[in-house]
Design a protein that fits this description.
Rossmann fold, about 15% strand, alpha/beta, four-stranded parallel β-sheet, six-stranded mixed β-sheet, 2 domains, 17 helices
Length: about 425
C-alpha cells in the first residue's frame, strides 16, 4: 500500500491481501459486516493512489494540523538522566494536541469520498475523540463518540472539547467502563447502520483494513522524524521509543525505520500497578494469541479466550490487545516490547514538565520514563528519539488530585540530577 505522505513505506508487502501480518490481523466479523469491510478496503485502495486526495490530505497536514511537527533535543532531561541524548518528536504540538489528528483527517476524508453522513468512534483518553470531532466539524460530518464512564470522569477536559466541537459523547456503562467497552459499544452501533456511517477506529487495531489504513496515515511521523534526525545529528537515532496501547503512534514512527537494523525500536506497554498484579495492560508482554474486536492479536484473556479487564493510569493505553503488526514485530524480534509502571510514568510526567517545560500526556510519559532508563545504559554520544504522542492538558487535574507533588526546589548542584529529583518526589509526598 502506498504511503500517503511520501513515496512508499518499508512494510509495503504487509499486510497480505487478507489483512494478515504474519499470523495476526485478518477480519473476524459477521458476514453482513464483511461486505462493508470490503467496501472500505476498496475505497481506501482507490483514494490512496488518487493524486487529488493525497494533495488534499497534505494541504490539511501542513495548513491545518501544523506539520511537520518539530524534533526537540531535551538537553536538561538528557543531562539529568546521564548517558544518551534524548530527543522528542513533538506530536503534542499538532492541532488537537496529539498524533490522533493524523489518521482522523484521513478517515474523515475517506468517509466524505464514500458518501457517509456520520463518523463514529471509541475513545479512551479522549484524544482520538477530540481529533475525530475536529475533523468532522471541518468536513461537515455528524460525529458520535463512545467513551467509558470511568474515562468520561477522568478526562473531563476532552469530553468538554468534543461537545464544543459538536460531537455527541455517549458514556458506556457496561463492563469496566473503559476503552475496551467503548470499542464494544461503537462496534454495536456500527452494525446497526454500516451504510450511512463509518467506524473510524482510533488505532492500528480492528478488522482489515483498519490496522493498515491507520498505520499509513500515521507513517508521516516516521517519514518526518527520519529526515529531521539526519539533519539535526547527521545520522539516524540509535534508538526509538514509543508507548503502545493499540499502538498507532508507535507504528507511525516505527514504520520508517523497520529496515534500518542499526536503529533499536522499543514499544512501551503499561505495567500499571505491576506485572505481578492483575492491574496492568501489558498485552504483548503478558498475553497470548486470541481474537478481539474482529482481528487476531496478542490478548490478555481468561482460560476461555475472553478478554480480561485491564488497567492503566493512562486511559489511552487501557486496552487488552495490541495492533496486529506490533504482534508480528514482536514475534520476529524487530521491536523490543517492554513496560513502565504507573509510578514511573507519573515521575516522568513531572520530570519532563519541570526540566523542559513540556507537560506530556500520561500515555507519552510511559515512553519518556523508559527513555530515561535506557539513556542511563548508553554512552553520551548515542541518541534516543521519543515519540511524544500527546500533551498532558487532559491529565493535569487527575494527576494533581491523585498524585500531588509538593513544591520541588532542587538543592545546589543537583538541578539536573534525575535521581535526585525522584528522591525529592518520594521523600516529600
Amino acid at each position: 500500500m502506498k504511503n500517503l505522505v511520501n513515496e512508499k513505506i518499508n512494510t509495503a508487502s504487509l499486510p497480505d491481501e487478507n489483512g494478515y501480518f504474519g499470523s495476526y490481523g485478518g477480519s473476524f466479523v459477521p458476514p453482513e459486516l464483511q461486505s462493508v469491510m470490503d467496501e472500505v478496503t476498496q475505497a481506501y485502495e482507490k483514494i490512496s493512489r488518487d493524486p487529488e486526495f493525497i494533495a488534499q490530505l497534505r494541504d490539511l497536514q501542513e495548513h491545518y494540523t501544523g506539520r511537520p511537527s518539530p524534533v526537540f533535543h531535551a538537553k536538561n532531561l538528557s543531562r539529568a538522566a546521564g548517558g544518551a541524548q534524548i530527543y522528542l518528536k513533538r506530536e503534542d504540538l499538532n492541532h488537537t494536541g496529539a498524533h490522533k489528528i493524523n489518521h482522523c483527517l484521513g478517515e474523515a476524508l475517506l468517509a466524505k469520498r464514500m458518501g457517509k453522513k456520520k463518523v463514529i468512534a471509541e475513545t479512551g483518553a479522549g484524544q482520538h475523540g477530540v481529533a475525530l470531532a475536529t475533523a468532522a466539524a471541518l468536513l461537515g460530518l455528524e460525529c458520535d463518540i463512545y467513551m467509558g464512564e470511568v474515562d468520561v470522569m477522568k478526562e473531563a477536559p476532552n469530553v468538554s472539547r468534543m461537545k464544543i466541537l459538536g460531537a455527541r459523547v455517549i458514556p458506556v456503562k457496561s463492563g469496566t467502563r473503559t476503552l475496551k467497552d467503548a470499542v464494544d459499544e461503537a462496534f454495536k452501533a456500527y452494525l446497526k447502520d454500516p451504510v450511512t456511517q463509518i467506524y473510524c477506529i482510533g488505532s492500528v487495531v480492528g478488522p482489515h483494513p483498519f490496522p493498515m489504513m491507520v498505520r499509513d496515515f500515521q507513517s508521516v511521523i516516521g517519514v518526518e522524524a527520519k529526515e529531521q534526525m539526519q539533519k539535526m545529528t547527521g545520522r539516524l537515532p540509535d534508538s526509538i521509543v514509543a508507548c503502545v496501547g493499540g499502538g498507532s503512534n508507535a507504528m507511525g514512527i516505527f514504520s520508517a525505520f523497520l529496515d534500518d537494523r542499526d536503529v533499536s525500536l522499543y514499544g512501551v506497554e503499561p505495567a500499571g500497578m505491576g506485572l505481578d498484579t492483575d492491574q496492568h495492560a501489558a498485552s504483548i508482554t503478558m498475553g497470548k494469541p486470541g481474537i478481539l474486536h474482529g482481528f487476531k492479536t496478542i490478548l490478555i484473556q481468561d482460560e476461555n479466550g475472553q478478554p480480561l479487564p485491564v488497567y492503566s493510569i493512562a486511559s489511552g493505553l487501557d486496552y487488552p490487545g495490541a495492533g496486529p503488526q506490533h504482534c508480528y514485530l514482536h514475534d520476529i524480534k524487530r521491536v523490543n516490547y517492554t513496560t513502565i509502571t504507573d509510578r514511573e510514568a507519573v515521575e516522568a510526567f513531572y520530570a519532563l514538565s519541570r526540566m523542559e517545560g513540556i507537560i506530556p500526556a500520561l500515555e507519552s510519559s510511559h515512553a519518556v520514563a523508559y527513555a530515561v532508563k535506557l539513556a542511563q545504559t548508553m554512552d553520551k554520544d548515542k541518541t534516543i528519539l521519543v515519540n511524544l504522542s500527546g500533551r498532558g492538558d487532559k491529565d493535569i487535574d487527575f494527576v494533581m488530585a491523585n498524585y500531588p507533588l509538593v513544591e520541588y526546589e532542587p538543592e545546589e548542584g543537583s538541578r539536573n540530577d534525575y535521581k535526585e529529583f525522584l528522591t525529592h518526589i518520594h521523600s516529600r509526598r
